[in-house]
Amino acid sequence: MSSGSRFPVHYLLFILIQEAVLPEHEVAIRTPDGTANGVLFASEDGRRLPGVIFLTDVGGIRASQHQMGGRLAAEGYAVLLPNIFYRTDKPPVWHFPLRFGEPATMQRFGELTGPLTPDAIERDAGAYVDFLAGHESVGNAPMGVVGLCFSGALAVRTAAARPDRIAAAASFHGGRLYADDPSSPHLVLPHVKARLYFGHATDDRSMPQEVIGKLDDALESWGGRYESEIYEGARHGWTVPDNPAYNQPQAERAFEKLKELFADRLK
Questions:
Q1: What is the pLDDT of residue 22?
Q2: Is 88 a member of any domain?
């Protein structure tokens, strides 16, 4: 993720169109641990749409995430972008360029992600679902959740925390989805009733091939409905327009997969 804007011209034109037609509202979400600020894309014409939780990458809420959430909302969803790092800071949560491996970046990464323990994620998941369920623009249809990079695991945990409402969950270039420790995200699979989708990057240090294989084995043992695939030639972060790894053709393919998943389970 980069703090600068590197949007292709075609994507900037799309953004201008979307911003002209999609209402966007700043919201405050009460959680057991405080108040998370966020953004809600919702209809203002009286329609009650299926709710979707869009979990940002570690860069937090910013222009690229607004535009990705708005594009999804244009498909007929009320989309909530919560500030998943509300325990640490309000957006922008980065005040200098991200350079993974450098001490300042790794320190800030720890400050943002450290408070997001499995228990905290579960509490937040309930709050986000309840916020959407209680909003006048959201219908009674099942909900979806999507996570990017760091938040891919959060999407899975959200589906496990609220199986009564979450019917579809997707992770794109999610990291550390499987680990040999008691806090591994894959261990919540028995609680998940949603259809799952995992889009993996190629040569991803946070999710190498052998770990993808272990996750696939766990998914097969789980027995639910899922799809897990590697996007050849796509590096970690390929779906995010302001990420240096952005890969437009593969990002479009990922968006089509997300549309298919949500159309199948939420409409």
A1: 61
A2: yes
